[in-house]
Amino acid sequence: MERELSLEFVRVTEAAALASGRLMGRGDKEAADQAAVDAMRSVFDTVHINGTVVIGEGEKDEAPMLYVGEELGIANEPSVDVAVDPLEGTNLVAKGLPNALSVVAVAPKGCLLKAPDVFYMDKIAVGPTARGCIDLDAPVADNLKAVAKAMDREVRDLTAIILERPRHEKLIAEIREAGARVKLITDGDVSAAIATCIGTSGVDILFGIGGAPEGVIAAAALKILGGDMQCRLIPKSEGIGDDQGKMAVDDPYRLLQLEDLARGEDLFFAATGITDGDMLNGVRYSGQTAETHSLVMRGITRTIRNVYATHRLERKPRFVSEESICRH
Fold it and tell me: How many separate helices (H) and strands (E) can be counted in the chain?
């Protein structure tokens, strides 16, 4: 994929952030999500790729969103897999809470794991310093000791990030018993996984069960950033065999490494902040202008760019206009 595409993918996430950011704190997560989806689709329809959504909002007949199997772009080449989360953290935007993002990951066709949204994913992730030191099947305390050793710290100096869910009560107790600090989040485990690779985030390791699609999107970013992740798919319900055919996994219960989730190095990842967070600033509106903060990464060169943009809203298409937002 040509490096010039990186800016095109930033345009995609910027549009989604500008559209959904207008609805921050209004208490309507469905409207915010739909605004992000509409804007993202509009810009993707101008990008010179032959893309297929492999991680999105579900099958076409089940969701009016960017759906799995949807075709994106206006060119015949390059043929790519596209993983999207137009609004990662719908509840965060609805309530005006931190760390809501719009994210996109792109890779050559066949290089992103197909992870249907009928699955959860048990995950463990760390940054570059602790790469190769984690084992999803090992006790929590052993993982914390290994990461602390790799980072030349004590376990008590580590901070583990985890979704605050009833299913994690035992896991949280084990982390605390081992002596590490705990940062609980309500939503947004894509940004949480990436935070392990950002030195200023104060986060060292991610534990816990979250969405499988979010895990694959995060894996693309971790791969570029030099981090590490292991995971295992967990069915939401019985009847796993019915959904196995949608996945590029021979054994849905096997331990998956980072390379299983995002193959090769020809990867792109882009994210734009919607609300302020550990990694990105949220959208700032001021009359007819808006400011966005984005992150775009290219796997081949490991280039990481922070993109600060000022947008003249009267010159933007209808997806960022007040009229468009009010329709939601």
Answer: 10, 14
Token output for 51:
């893309």
From the centroid of its chain, how far is CA 60? 21
CB-based contact 274:280 (threshold 8 Å): no
Q: What is the Cα–Cα distance from 214 to 216, expressed in whole angstroms? A: 5
Dist CA 237 CA 299 (whole Å): 35
- In angstroms, what CA-CA distances link 15 with 11, 54, 131, 249, 273? 6, 21, 34, 33, 11
**What secondary structure, in 3-state letters, does 267-312 show?**
CEEEEEECCCCCCCCCCEEECCEEEEEEEEEECCCCEEEEEEEEEE
Average pLDDT per block of 10 residues along the chain, 328 residues long: 88 96 94 93 94 77 68 94 94 95 96 80 97 98 98 98 96 98 94 92 95 92 97 66 48 88 96 94 93 96 95 74 48
Distance CA 147, CA 182 (A): 15
Please answer whether residues 133 and 76 qualify as being in contact, where contact means their C-beta atoms are separated by less than 8 angstroms.
no
3-class secondary-structure state, position 74: coil
Cα distances from 138 to residues 3, 28, 253, 256, 321, in angstroms, run 39, 41, 16, 14, 51
Question: What's the chain's Rg over C-alpha atoms?
Answer: 19
Put simply, whether the predicted model's pTM sits higher than 0.70 gets the answer yes
β-pairing verdict for 101-108 and 79-88: antiparallel
